[in-house]
Specification:
258 residues, alpha/beta, Rossmann fold, two-stranded antiparallel ribbon, 10 strands, 32% helix, 18% strand, globular
Length: 258
Amino acid sequence: MPGGSPERDPVPPSRVGSMTSTDSGSTPKPPARDPWDLPDVSGLVVGVLGGTGDQGRGLAYRLARAGQKVIIGSRVAERAETAAAGLAEMGVEGVEGLDNAACARSSDVVIVAVPWEGHAKTLESLKDALAGKLVIDCVNPIGFDKKGAYAITPEEGSAAEQAVALLPESRVTAAFHHLSAVLLQDPSVERIDTDVMVLGEARADTDLVQALAARIPGMRGIFAGRLRNAHQVESLVANLISVNRRYKAHAGLRVTDI
């Protein structure tokens, strides 16, 4: 809803305490919804496009380890099957490998974890397969030169907004940008203490993505605005890369006071 106020704008101080009272005889307003009241997503099938890469494979591993049914997608089905078999060897069940189109069609929620260079081409080819699906874009448009990592600004404004333009019949959200692939894939790491910034246009969709993030021990999904704000979230990865290189770490994010 361009031009409208975000669904989760904070209640002005003057309105606090008056949400259930009447204003000049008007109908009482219901109390505000608890932002931590999230849906049960345990029964959803999650597809991961780019699930043979480090980030995608790590997300597939963590979600499957949490009990989620996961399908790994790849341009070549055999590569996806090999990646799924590798996760089975790590002790997780319920992971299947399919080509990208079959993965998209067979999933309720689809995470896009492909390299930025192949983002547009991949989504263009899957427009029909992703129709009606909830898409979670976690792609970071990042480049590298002698000075290190830097953010790229797509013509549409962000990778997520490019996904919106290419997938008019899908419900696009953005999340999982700031997670360390090393930690995601490390079976000795029991918890990943970090927050996942979730962006989207519909509260029902962002609530679902938040709930999916919360399936992974240590993570919280945090609503972080509409998709027009996705660029700065995607770009922050360049800063985290610099942090990790300097401190030899696998830094993530924590949002305070919530």
